[in-house]
Inverse folding.
RNA sequence: GGGGGAGUGUCCCGAGUGGCAAAGGGGGCGGACUGUAAAUCCGCUGGCUACGCCUUCGUAGGUUCGAGUCCUACCUCCCCCA
């Protein structure tokens, strides 16, 4: 579908070339708008968590490219919609957050955006509005009279997302049904306030976004546009961003840069090229070269991916540190001082620390029971020596010159215990 | 409002005759093979001061030597009728 269209604007060209585009309501129209140099676009973000995770990275990158190509990005915080809870598909309704929590979350999220886009008051500076600004004070009757009358229930019922819900056993509550109305209203409000004409989002947002276009037309805004990105799964079909440890957070205090680097380093072969295009700003020519590497050489491409992705989020220095730690640990088999470290009182080593407890302390296993199981499966190592006895004790003799013991779970997860 | 059905190992789905730490999947973790990949094969997948002890089957009681399993009430969800 996008093949036939030749964009003239940098914005659309980059997005299409790099694989961000799944669907667009009007390629030519949007292209012309982008070419005019005054394109303002927004993406909505949940503020139910203190930061964002890689699941949102694709959207963040789209805003980044928008700014890079001369547009103005709006990162809309769903402070208002968070108050009613996000119903999209989930069985469990989200717990209500206090206003303070929402504010704190917004601060954390803002930190992420600051790494990718520039905020300010200028023409192309990004802005982070909060829909609580207009939703919280909405009067029901006024809303129905001025906005609600424009929604066609017939049309909404025909939407895939709604049909799906009606067909399944899970009901669709009135609140959820209204959610898309609020989202559509956000779009119109952002158009009035900031001249925003484009909403972007994941492909699952298509229906909601188009509802916004429709509302805009009925309420007399200028022509609005919709553009969605594909749902990103790994080559083997898994949803991206889930690891054993949990979500891949975009915050150093929630996920260390080293782990973030490892996340990208461990991607599947078949994903490298696509991920380089989506999650780094490396030139396409360079990516094509890296992507073409075969066999074990593809690991070079993975390192570039990890380096670039980490540098963008945590800075070049942190990325290089992570790369160095990985190199020492995996390629040279040396002890990298910068591995995740947990402090343990020196006295405990004197007394002899139970190996099971030590691994629990290091956070490598959740319980001593799990530690026992891993030992049986040969998964635990102390200073690179597989642990065979559950009752083993880690004493002072295990400490290396630098005063640390290296504990490993499998081949990839290592933690240092340091005597203090 | 009336009738019928369902809630199981806190990741998910899902068997279960009164003796059950509870079948089987998926997912996840570990091992082997590799390249810190994929695919494949194997093991593990309640907790603990661990040849024993403790806590689990929507919630609270009851019957029983013994309850996921039987009885009662309550909660939640689904379906049909109104």
């Amino acid at each position: 579908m996008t093949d036939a269209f030749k964009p003239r604007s940098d914005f659309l060209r980059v997005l299409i070339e790099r694989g961000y585009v799944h669907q667009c309501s009007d390629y030519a129209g949007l292209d012309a708008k982008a070419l005019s140099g005054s394109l303002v676009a927004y993406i909505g973000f949940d503020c139910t968590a203190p930061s964002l995770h890689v699941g949102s990275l694709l959207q963040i990158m789209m805003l980044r490219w928008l700014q890079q190509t001369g547009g103005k990005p709006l990162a809309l915080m769903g402070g208002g919609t968070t108050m009613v809870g996000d119903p999209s598909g989930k069985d469990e309704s989200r717990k209500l957050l206090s206003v303070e929590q929402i504010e704190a979350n917004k601060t954390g999220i803002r930190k992420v955006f600051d790494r990718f886009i520039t905020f300010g008051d200028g023409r192309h500076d990004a802005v982070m509005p909060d829909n609580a600004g207009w939703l919280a004070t909405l009067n029901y009757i006024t809303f129905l009279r001025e906005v609600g009358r424009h929604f066609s229930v017939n049309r909404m019922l025909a939407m895939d997302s709604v049909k799906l819900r009606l067909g399944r056993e899970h009901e669709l509550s009135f609140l959820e049904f209204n959610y898309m109305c609020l989202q559509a209203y956000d779009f119109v409000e952002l158009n009035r306030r900031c001249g925003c004409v484009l909403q972007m989002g994941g492909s699952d947002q298509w229906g909601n976004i188009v509802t916004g276009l429709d509302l805009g037309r009925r309420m007399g805004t200028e022509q609005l546009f919709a553009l969605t990105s594909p749902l990103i799964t790994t080559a083997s079909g898994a949803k991206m961003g889930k690891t054993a440890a949990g979500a891949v957070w975009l915050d150093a205090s929630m996920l260390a840069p080293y782990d973030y680097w490892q996340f990208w380093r461990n991607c599947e072969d078949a994903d490298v090229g696509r991920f380089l295009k989506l999650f780094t700003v490396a030139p396409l020519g360079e990516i094509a070269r890296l992507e073409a590497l075969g066999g074990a050489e593809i690991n070079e491409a993975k390192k570039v991916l990890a380096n670039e992705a980490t540098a963008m989020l945590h800075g070049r220095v942190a990325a290089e540190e992570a790369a160095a730690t990985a190199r020492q640990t995996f390629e040279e088999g040396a002890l990298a001082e910068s591995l995740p470290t947990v402090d343990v009182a020196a006295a405990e080593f004197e007394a002899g620390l139970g190996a099971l407890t030590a691994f629990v302390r290091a956070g490598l296993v959740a319980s001593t029971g799990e530690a026992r199981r891993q030992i049986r499966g040969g998964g635990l190592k102390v200073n690179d020596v597989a642990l065979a006895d559950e009752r083993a004790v880690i004493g002072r003799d295990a400490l290396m010159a630098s005063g640390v013991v290296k504990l490993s779970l499998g081949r990839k997860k290592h933690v240092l215990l340091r005597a203090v």
Q: What stands out?
A: Residues 169-171, 235-236, 238, 242, 244, 262, 265-272, 295-299, 302, 326, 329-331, 365, 367-370, 372-374, 376-380, 390, 409-412 of chain A lie near RNA strand B (CB under 10 Å from a C1'). DSSP finds 19 helices and 14 strands in chain A. Residues 247 and 405 of chain A are 28 Å apart (CA to CA). Confidence is low (pLDDT under 50) at residues 86-95 of chain A.
